[in-house]
Every structure is written in C-alpha cells, then in structure tokens.
Amino acid sequence: MRVNTIMTSTVITIQSTATVAEAANIMLSNRISGLPVVDTQGTLLGLISESDLLRRSELDTERQRSWWLALLASPGKVAEEYVRAHGGKVKEVMSAPVTTASPYTTLGEAVDLMEKSKVKRLPVVANGRLVGIVTRSDFLKPLRKPQAEPGKPLPDAGIAAAIAEELAAQSWAKNGLIRAYVKNGVVTLNGSVLDERERGAAIVAAENVPGVKMVRDQLAWIDPSYGIVVQAP
C-alpha cells in the first residue's frame, strides 16, 4: 500500500507570517496537534505542532538550567531557545526542515521515516507542493476494514504445510523445534520454545491459516540457561 491510499488530502495549513495565537486557535478548533506551514504557492516551509509550543514564556515553562549547565550551553543555543519561547510568529517557532513523504512512498517506508525521525506526522509533497498529510491515526484506516473472507478452507494436510512454511520463514522458529499436527481443522502445536514470546507467535501463525478452527498449545518451554523444561499449561 502507498501513502496516497491513507493520507488526508484536505490539509489545514497556516502561513509563516501568522501569529502563534492563530496557530493555537486553529489547532484547538479543529482538534489537531500540528499544522504544515506553507507559502502562498503551497510550498511546504515547515511544521508547527504542540511540541513546538510547550516551552513558552506565557506558560512559565521556559527551559531552566542549573548554573553549571548554563555554563555549558552555547550562547547560540540559549538565543535559539529564547526565540522559541518568546517568538510571536509561526516562522519563529516552527520546526524546519521537515521530514516528508511522497504520495507513492510505501506504508512501510513511511513508518520507518516516522520512527527514525521520531515524528507523529509526515507532510506529503509532490513536485514541491503539499498535497496531503499522513499521521499515526491514518494507519488505522486499513485495520478497521474486516479482512476478506478466505476462500475454500485448506484440508488438514494443507493447513499443516502452510503452518510449516510460515514457521520456516520466521527467524524465531527456524530452529525447527515447533511442529504442528492437524485433525479436522484443529491444530495442535507440539515441540518446544526457548522464549515464551515464541509461543504466542506460533499460535498467531497457526490461527492465520484458512481453515483453522482452533489451536491447542502443547508447546514446552526450555530455559536455555539451565535446560529446565516447563510443560505447556
């Protein structure tokens, strides 16, 4: 899937010459936590969000340093913080440059960008102009749709083969200690796991195969440090 399938196309924006008060009013009125900053041509200049407005003189939340940390801070850094705490224009407090995505960025690539940059939203830009925005909540859109009903359920042998194939493809199960037996659509997982989290993953892998009616967990846990075997509950 691509970003253009989940992004919000009608984006509420603000210009860099607007005031901080105007930005706050827009965010509160529309119940949004960030605004792309654009020029009159729709070119993205930056982004102003709630986090940009946390350290403000009006709130008495300006950053306070102990005397020894104040000695270590460069004058330029302190001056920058002063502007962000006291600046009245959006251009003085906005974050720039901004991490962006294109409409054809995959959802996986977008998630990687958001995690790497530690941001909650990505403006979507095409040909230099803002065309949308994707936020964390947009990734919920595909999840709210029920999964398509599977086709004809697999026979027991097919279910067992599908589970084995999935387990073989996963690094946490490549040791071959997990085995699946199937009878009348009921899967019994036998064998052992070296980490309790592998148990849950194996159950999910089995549940996702078409035709599976129930999964019985008979996996034993082996403590790799002491070799102690704990049977399944």
TrEMBL record:
<dbReference type="InterPro" id="IPR046342">
    <property type="entry name" value="CBS_dom_sf"/>
</dbReference>
<dbReference type="InterPro" id="IPR051257">
    <property type="entry name" value="Diverse_CBS-Domain"/>
</dbReference>
<dbReference type="Pfam" id="PF04972">
    <property type="entry name" value="BON"/>
</dbReference>
<feature type="domain" description="BON">
    <location>
        <begin position="155"/>
        <end position="223"/>
    </location>
</feature>
<feature type="domain" description="CBS">
    <location>
        <begin position="7"/>
        <end position="65"/>
    </location>
</feature>
<protein>
    <submittedName>
        <fullName>CBS domain-containing protein</fullName>
    </submittedName>
</protein>
<dbReference type="Pfam" id="PF00571">
    <property type="entry name" value="CBS"/>
</dbReference>
<dbReference type="InterPro" id="IPR014004">
    <property type="entry name" value="Transpt-assoc_nodulatn_dom_bac"/>
</dbReference>
<keyword id="KW-0129">CBS domain</keyword>
<dbReference type="InterPro" id="IPR017080">
    <property type="entry name" value="UCP036990_CBS_BON"/>
</dbReference>
<feature type="domain" description="CBS">
    <location>
        <begin position="94"/>
        <end position="149"/>
    </location>
</feature>
<dbReference type="InterPro" id="IPR007055">
    <property type="entry name" value="BON_dom"/>
</dbReference>
<dbReference type="InterPro" id="IPR000644">
    <property type="entry name" value="CBS_dom"/>
</dbReference>
